[in-house]
## 1
Amino acid sequence: MQLGYNEIMIVSKYFEDINDFINLEMGVKRFQGNMEQFHFNPIPLNEYSRKLFPNIETFCIYKEDDEIFDDGRIIKYVIWYKVSYSRYLKEKEEGNICKNIEYTQEDREKYGNTIQKEVNSLGNYCFKEFSSLTTINIPTSVIEIGDDCFSWCSSLT
């Protein structure tokens, strides 16, 4: 069985570094142009590697310190690192997507005790010392609860 063009694109989505993409295209002639097929960046990019992915329309930001490009071809951004619920709301207004949303203590103080379904984690100390809290509904989307999130919530049952 041979890998076709579509299959190699799927496999190369899991490459971790630009050299893997370069080696694939240089090593196997029929896979030249693989990087041009991507409409999103499967790895963080720098000034050099950005040029190798010319057709990106959705720019993925994997870490907070990733270099971000706004070269006129980018339609939207997808943020993969953890952001607060407040930041998520701002990004959503701009048409961007956040994949890892944390409800922080500041968010709770601003938006209240209802955890929205978009939230994936509750931050450290989010509800700490909230002694009047008696019940809370945690959506199934929440997969992580931070340290001391509910400590000293003496009325919580």
## 2
Amino acid sequence: MSYKGIGNEYAEYETYVEYIKDNIMQVRNINPGTSLAVVYELKDGELERTLTQGEVYYRYDYTSSKKEDEILIKEPIKVGTSWTLKDGTKRSITSTDKNISTPLGNYTALEITSESSESTVTDYYVKNIGHVKKVFKTKEGDFTVSSELEKIEKDMPYREQIRFYYPDFLKDKLAYVIKDIELFTNKDVKEIFEREMKIIPEGSELTKVMSDNTKILNIELDDDKDLVTVDFSSHLVSEMNAGTSLEAMLLKSITNTFGTYFQKQKVKITLEGKPYSSGHVLMGPEEYFTVNTENTYEFK
């Protein structure tokens, strides 16, 4: 869904549905300034926004995370239903059949008005579509910003580029390949990594990072620690068939690939839940590898 912005360059934005799990939905919200992961939950007659994670330029399932509980809509759906947010803003249903216009068309909408000491925000929701319009006004009325629905596209993937690193053993460097990836709703990004890290460019002398039997079991982020943990099946080591130097390059490739994508400097590699261990490398429970993209080049 695309929204036209009026009055502010950041009022324009696009949304992509990343995950739908029962009564929970995660959306990627992209405006000219940033990319957000936003999670909504419908329960007990209330629609809540449970998480807004800023500067998210990757696909990750945040549906089980909860950092806020802002009520957007509340039953009973009738004029006069009201509630107060934690910051003191009063939010209420002010119309159930408001006629509005957007660049995409005219609608009869549910109108939700939020009143604070400094501004009034009016949101409009339409059944079977969702949020179609937002209008922000200062109390003085001298500043207005609006976002209005202008396009809906169904079954469209979110397209992004991912940088995958591979050992170039003969050059004693890491090479990276930038690949165009399509992510549909509910697509787990670990499937993408698992597939692509087993593929090298045709005719190249790069080394596959994982054997065909190796599985990525889990990916977990810890934003506070600037850490991503990637759990592999034991085949990562048992089928690695590498000496000390090549193993180090493979581990660097994994570290750079996941750390770069998930915007984390620290990468913990585990084997079926246990610290990484091989004949050459033994990691402790709290030890991790650090992203280092020096001595790398783009393979074209």
## 3
Amino acid sequence: DNPFGAVLYFKGTVTDTVVKSVLSAPMPDLSDIFEVPDSTRFKVGEWWAVTIDAEKGKGKYEQEVQRLVEITRLEDPTHIRVGYKIGWDLAAGRTFTWTRIEPVDRAHVRNMVFQGIPDGDQLTGSHPIAYEYAINCDVEHVDASGTFWPVIMRRWCTHFRTRACSLKNPASVTWGGAGYLTQQIYCLYGHVEDCHVANSRHLNDLTASAYCHVTNCHGDGDDQGPFVTHGQFEHDLVYTGNSGLMTFANSGAAWGSVAKRITVRKHVCSWFVARVKITDLTLEDMQVIGKPSLDGSGMLWVNADGVQIRGCTASGPLIVSQASTRSQRANVIADSTFTFAKGAEITQANVTADVHFERVTLKGLDGANLKNAGRLTLTECTLVGTPAAAPTTVTGAALTVTGGELRDTGLRFAGSGDQSATLARARLGGSNADRALLARTGGARTVTWNLDGCTSTAADAATAHIVVTEGVNRYRAAGNTFTGGRLELAPGAFAGTSALLHTGCVEDGVTRTAVPDEGPRVAHTAGNQLL
């Protein structure tokens, strides 16, 4: 019952030389100079395992730094430089524990075929290779089948390459930690490339690791997720040209559910989930294509904490939620296409950060929901429903639509607090189940409407360009063109502190089914062209 009980087990020597150091000042992200009580206890070229204590009030596994590092310079009597830039801001008072290591160095394994014990379990199963406290140890051309624990198990390893290895039909894909091609724990500067798995659990698991690359790796029978991270403060990982289901930081809250600066490029899979505390996630040229055999597949679920998505598609829904607030960069989803089922929740209510959609197509809209509390901006986006589909409900405080098109769908504002709806140069057309392209529900709030230079074409006479019948409204429409259909601006919605300015608009074949009487706060006659 030991993932390190491999046929070939390489382990460095853990010495009894231990140094503890307490930060007297904050240590910022990307620092490589560490405070120590006496730098003369270290020598350049030595290797040390460094671990930070868990932050007070957090779980014991929530440790931002667990690495095997080389001492590269003694800076001054109380500071040393190491070959690693940390990935997190650390507060004063945190404690590091340093343990000197004599690592295994350059013990390579190449050209092996390994057959695991048939029907092995956690006690009887077999696996070929494990490294612990090792540097510069590569594994190449190892082909395994029927193994129980990971084929290549690494912990406290730095500078390594796993290349052209494979795993077929492991003994288990349900037992925790079993059925992997390779797992890396507390690892640095690793490169996993040109690897394949069939019917395994994970091709690659990076746990509490950093600055690693995974390239040109592929899995079939991949419902268990070939590509994962544990969520134990992994950072600066790059995945390029791979295929297979992918989930990040999904192992549970006990580990922190945290990761940072992960980039995925040119990836294809049936499912992508990075919904927890993942900061500065970048996705480029990813295709998520669902399959009938995997319920819920086709989804792309991300955390709105510096997420940037470009050139991606998903046959299932895009889901944007928010579980952390560490990032300094914008949440941007661009040049992508997503398809939704009825009642889809596109942005969740826990999203307080601003989110930007640019040149994005949202298809299959039928009663979809935009629930984010922060500002949502749609720039040159296309929203597509059907004439029988329900409009999209907006409950957030502010929505801005610039350019783009709403086709056979609509926007229904139904927030619990004041809302702002700004549409500029947008095209609206067709109809929906509510027969209203823009509308509000609920009266106990103020909705501010700004319509500038829009073109709205109703599918039939019963379809309204806009329906406003209740609540307080600050309405301004200027330079718009309305064709067919109707306008319903009920007098009761423009009493008291409400205001209406409708000017410079062309109404071609439009019926004004309701408008308030003009007065100091209402104007809708002068400056319009009614055809």
## 4
Amino acid sequence: MKTADFLMLLTGLSLFLYGMQMMEEGLLTAAGDRMKKLIAVLAGGRARGVLIGTLVTAVIQSSSAMTVMVVGFVNSGMMTLYQAVWIIMGANIGTTVTGQLIALNLGALAPILAFTGVILVVFVKRPAAKSAGEMFAGLGVLLIGMEIMGRAMLPLQNSPLFLKWMTTFRNPFIGVLAGTVFTALIQSSSASVGILQMLASSGMIGLGDAVYVVCGQNIGTCVTAMLAAIGTSTDAKRTTVIHVLFNVIGTVIFIALCVLTPFTDLVRLLSPENPSMQIANIHTIFNVVTTLALLPFGKRMADWAVKILPDRSPDNRVETAKRRSRK
């Protein structure tokens, strides 16, 4: 890769990540504190918790932000550890909406979205309009960044060394590790999946290689909540343990599914002409299947989190026992 192409790649990546952050901030601002309070009030039973987690995360476009909110709710006592389990499961489903949007090939609309967003942010004073402007501008900049990255990486299509390196992701361990590390570094599974979609659309990574990277991306996104839990209560830290357990167990289930069944072939049949949609569908199926598989074991996962991260002092153990007895 030439220096000019490398610099173009960095520019595209910067715009992509900035657009993702701008869109997320606009959505979070639009959601406001009322939505946060509503989550804490409505998060009750299993089905309701998963539904709320899915819908709210689909709106704010960030499972990391949703999980950080849940950590805060548990830390403040507004939500129990058991309630947090269902919200986390739903958040993992809701975050897949971003990938589905990217797969719709809205690149031609990117300049219009960015221009409309800037007009709303600069010239309209109403907070709601400014939030909408941030959303539009963010999505537009994100799509422009993807287009620039795709162009910058075109020369790599003819690089045998790069293409051979990409095939190493067919090894489940290497694929999961790569997805985990990269997503942990950029702290966004949606952004990481979007970049993988760009690689797939450019023909630089096959579906059989990408499927394990997607598994790792779901694990890597746990890092944001883990960082947010530093200095919080023990139960808040346990929330992040549940998040990690969910994605690690889901990865094990999914790898077994891919190895033992023609899963990738079936996914390819759903959208044979759209590699980006194939990646988005894998991301969605991973989280839906994992949620359905672990739904009956939600409370047990909370108990596992307590065993993995036990109370330090006898007083805390007594308090935890009292909380359990009240349930």
